[in-house]
Amino acid sequence: MFVGHYAAAIAAKAVEPRAPLWTYALAAQLVDVAWGGLVIAGVERLSHDPSLPGSALVLEHMPYTHSLPAAVLWSVGAAAAVRVLLRLPVAAAVMVGAVVFSHWLLDLLVHRPDLALWFGGPKVGLALWNYPVPEQAVEIGLIALAAAAWGWRRGVEGQGWRAPVLFLAFLVALQIVAMLLPAEGSAVSTGLSAIGAYLAVTLAAVFADRPGRVRAP
């Protein structure tokens, strides 16, 4: 799961628009931003197996980011942070936390069994990664549905439709690039690439969130 995670961010923006889109975009991948940093530091571990169908990632050890307790803690921490630092309304802060937790739920759908139910506990994953075409269809489908909801919300508020369309196109382009990149590289390069991609989407979300008023007929 890559761009599919952003479906939660876009849907959250449609439901609770008082939080900036960039906070939702960052929340959707906050767990993986932390994962990238811990992989670079050698605290969490991965390897690559190009023979695997779908994703070549073998996620060997990531209890501090992708275990269920860790996901809960990251979610609560993110909600508290945006409430205090950005002074978001309680409902918006809770929605940010929910988007953070959605990452674990979506990973459960696609990951092979590498998500620990508790620290040191059994690992789960429904392994949709093993079926690349359906997995890609699910990701793009989720994004399209969420973008439609966001576009509707912007229309109700008298805002333009270009931002949702361009943001969606950017996400689809990123997904295509990710599919075409070779399934290899060091853990450090993987971590750096992941963080760079997530921050690029966060920056794009800043521009996509501009009102863009609809012209009067």
Structural notes for this entry:
The protein is mainly alpha-helical and 217 residues long. The protein has one domain. It contains 9 helices and 4 strands, in the order H-H-H-E-E-H-H-H-E-E-H-H-H. The strands form 2 sheets. Strands 1-2 form a two-stranded antiparallel sheet. A two-stranded antiparallel ribbon has the order 3-4. It is globular. The mean pLDDT is 91.
Tags for this model:
6% strand; globular; two-stranded antiparallel ribbon; 217 residues; single chain
Strand order of the largest sheet: 1-2
Taking all residues together, what is the mean pLDDT? 91
- Please summarize the sheet with the most strands: 2 strands, antiparallel
What's the number of domains? Answer: 1
The proportion of residues forming helix, as a percent range, comes to: 55-70%
What coarse outline follows from CA principal-axis ratios?
Answer: globular
Summary, kept brief:
The protein has 217 residues and is mainly alpha-helical.
Give the secondary structure arrangement, pairings included.
Layout: H1 6-15, H2 21-28, H3 30-41, E1 45-48, E2 57-61, H4 63-66, H5 68-85, H6 90-110, E3 115-116, E4 123-124, H7 132-156, H8 162-180, H9 187-208
Antiparallel strand pairs: 1-2, 3-4
Helix pairs in contact: 1-2, 1-7, 2-6, 2-9, 3-9, 5-6, 7-8, 8-9
